[in-house]
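Researcher: Watch the backbone:
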Amino acid sequence: MPTETLEEYLETIYKLAERGAVRPTPIAEALGVSGPTVTATLKRLESRELITRSDGDVVLTDTGKTLAIDIIRRHRLAERFLVDVLRLPWEEAHEDACRLEHALSPRVMEALEEYLDNPEVCPHGHPIPSAEGEIVPVKGVPLCDVDSGRTSEILQVSEDDEAMLTYLGSLGMYPGTPVRVCEVAPFKGPLLIEVNGTTYALGRDVAERILVSADLG
């Protein structure tokens, strides 16, 4: 089995690959490590046939992808347990789940999933892979692309920015919450939104990281 460090790399590479080609520099930035450290660790992953590298791109092998999905499954189930059962704030669950995910055996995972009544998404709205490794993607559009006067439902928010999650939590902007776009400032300016009867100005950089459903009206 891979070490905890290698598991973290596999998880990070998988998530970065969802946005496009993966290069070493974004891996270093995501994990907060130096370039030489990433280079050394990628060599370890390559020697175990968990990744391949070509023209600077890092690609998970089938085995690496299977392991990465399993790690993500453990992580997101751990987040649900921390938030739903232990009542930890959702902005703190991500970091603690990173520690807990490595200790969950398949038997514990099965019991935990049953105890949580088979959740489909983590507290931040990201899909939880099935035991067979299947992932049902969340389909939506960024909040910043919603026209003025439209109401949508929050589906998903970026999970790796604790400060942003704290801020969104203070506004009550959790998955499942309706949000109405009242006004969109020109030239990529902020959005004026209404949540739970209160109006807020939301920066476009934050709105870009919130996925919402199809128009509710």
Q: What stands out?
A: The domain at 141-212 is CATH 2.30.30.90 (SH3 type barrels.).
